[in-house]
Design goal:
mainly alpha
Length: about 200
């Protein structure tokens, strides 16, 4: 016989109901009021909140308030700090707030890749942001997403500031990505980017 699906916890079911009401009414005040009530309930420990929030990780109006309570209960939980930071970023909170969460997450667990990504993403200065992505790629040499973001940021810096060093970095990083690329459409995009960059006259 097939396994019977585990029913959601009362907290998860209540959060899903609040999400459905929000989808219908788009009343963020009512949503946050309801989530605050649920998060203050007797069964709302960190694990229960994480499970209830899981289906709504990409909906910052839901994930944010729930993970605020998780972080309040587990202030040194790097993963929770990163999820909260992502929710804040998606919701349009400033880089200072999100960057502080990223820094706390790195301090709690320096191996958390998501924390380093947030740390680099929230730097507003293009040159410093490129330098941060370079640090991330050195720390995680197999991180293809970080390499792509390094290449993109270096290319943007080269174009905006006519920076030869940034152009060399962008080309070298795109070449690394091309060497590892296997999908035809990915290789075509990288080859196009390289052709464009190699034709620049700074």
């Amino acid at each position: 016989m097939p396994d019977t699906p585990t029913p959601p916890s009362p907290l998860a079911a209540a959060v899903a109901d609040a999400a459905a009401r929000y989808e219908e009414q788009r009343d963020v005040v009512a949503l946050h009021t309801r989530l605050a009530e649920l998060a203050d309930g007797p069964d709302a420990d960190a694990d229960a909140l994480i499970a209830a929030a899981a289906p709504f990780a990409q909906i910052p109006e839901i994930a944010g308030p729930l993970y605020e309570r998780v972080v309040a209960q587990r202030p040194d939980d790097a993963r929770a700090l990163v999820v909260l930071g992502n929710a804040y970023w998606l919701h349009g909170r400033g880089p200072d707030v999100v960057g502080e969460l990223a820094t706390r997450a790195i301090a709690a667990d320096h191996t958390n890749r998501g924390a380093w990504h947030l740390w680099a993403l929230t730097e507003s200065d293009p040159r410093q942001r490129t330098a941060r992505w370079q640090q991330v790629t050195r720390r995680f040499p197999d991180d293809q997403l970080a390499k792509a973001l390094l290449a993109d940021n270096a290319a943007s810096l080269a174009g905006a500031e006519h920076d030869d060093e940034a152009l060399v970095l962008a080309i070298a990083t795109y070449e690394e990505l091309l060497a590892d690329a296997t999908r035809p459409e990915q290789r075509a995009a990288l080859e196009h980017a390289l052709d464009t960059l190699r034709g620049w006259k700074l």
